[in-house]
Amino acid sequence: MTARRALRIGTRGSQLALWQANRVSELIALQPWAPAVELLRIRTEGDARADVPLWQTGGRAFFTREIDRALLAGEIDIAVHSLKDLATALEPGLALAAVLEREDPRDALISRAGAALAALPAGARVGTSSLRRRAFLARTRSDLELAELRGNVPTRLERLVEGRYDAIVLAVAGLKRLGLEGRITEYLPPQAFPPAVSQGAIGVVTRAGDAEPSRWLRPLEHFATRVATLAERALLRRIEGGCQVPLGALGTVRDGRLELRAMVCALDGSRALEASGETLLGEPGAPEVALARAAAIGERLGGELLAQGARELIAELRSAAAVSPP
Predict the structure, then answer these.
(1) Contact 173, 179 (CB under 8 A)
(2) What is the pTM of this model?
(3) Residue 138 to residue 154: CA distance in whole angstroms
(4) What is the DSSP string of 239-300?
């Protein structure tokens, strides 16, 4: 009898990315007769260009492209991504096979002196690589100095300890997964700091129609997370934004209903556009209906934001960034 080949999982090499890939591996291993799993680390453009601010990258597939191309080339069988890094339109030939249960989607403030956001002194230097976080920080505290911060989670925390920043903002999910939630000074409320689209969720990609890996990934699917993030990603696709756009959105599923809230903010915090809505997901056992309604509400709210002037706000931001950094 021929031995079954191990499933090859492609992942970035950061501590957080490896945690995510190992989590997928563990969940596969829990299934009866599961195959062996092999992790392959793949260096992405985002890893190689760690000195480039994220607002300069174009925002599409910066941390995923090389892994997905290895998948299409047959060098790996499964790609594991932070879902927020994954483009809203996958490359032809790929499919989002599973979305794992979401961790806490909020942002967290970590300050060197233990001060909450409201208690930071005027002129305090706050580090973040995200234009979204910059915009919502400016909207709340226009007197802060907002500074560029790149690197993996431990590197960013180390730079805070070194005194380069008075505070930094990171995703709660990454801190929790690395056992670093004790470093959190304050959980930032999503009403004022809506998270990045799909923040806290893990997406697992396979080749479209590849039955063997898909067989082991189906049990990993968390449908409520799939529905919520689908709505968020549909909204982002409607607005045609990327990670360089100050857009936050959060979908929440409760009692058969999906609530979606989103906000686009000017980089200086001077103007914010908001949209929200909810929809019934349909009868249990009808996933196609739920997914269609999730996509529809995302499209609708994206259209509402565009009608309020989101496209003009984003165009102003891109024009300014082309001339000088934020």
Answers:
(1) no
(2) 0.92
(3) 25
(4) HT--TTS-EEEEEEEETTEEEEEEEEE-TTSS-EEEEEEEEE--STT-HHHHHHHHHHHHHH
Q: Look up residue 48 and give its DSSP letter.
A: H
Give how far Cα 204 sits from Cα of 80, 212, 222, Å: 5, 14, 12
Q: Report domain extents, the chain.
A: 1-101+201-221, 107-194, 222-326
> Could you confirm whether 255 is annotated as catalytic?
no
User: How many residues are recorded in the chain?
Assistant: 326
Beta bridge partners of 273: 264
For the structural domain made of 222-326, what CATH number should be given?
Answer: 3.30.160.40
* Burial of 256 from C-beta contacts in 10 A (0-12 / 13-18 / 19+): exposed
**Catalytic residue selected from 68, 77, 85, 107:** 85
Rounded to 5 degrees, what angle do the CA atoms 210, 215, 219 make? 135
Q: Per residue in 247-285, pLDDT tens?
A: 999 999 999 999 999 999 999 999 999 999 999 998 877
* Sheet of strand 7-11: strand arrangement: 37-41, 7-11, 78-82, 202-207, 94-99
Strand partners, 123: none
User: What does DSSP assign to residue 73?
Assistant: T
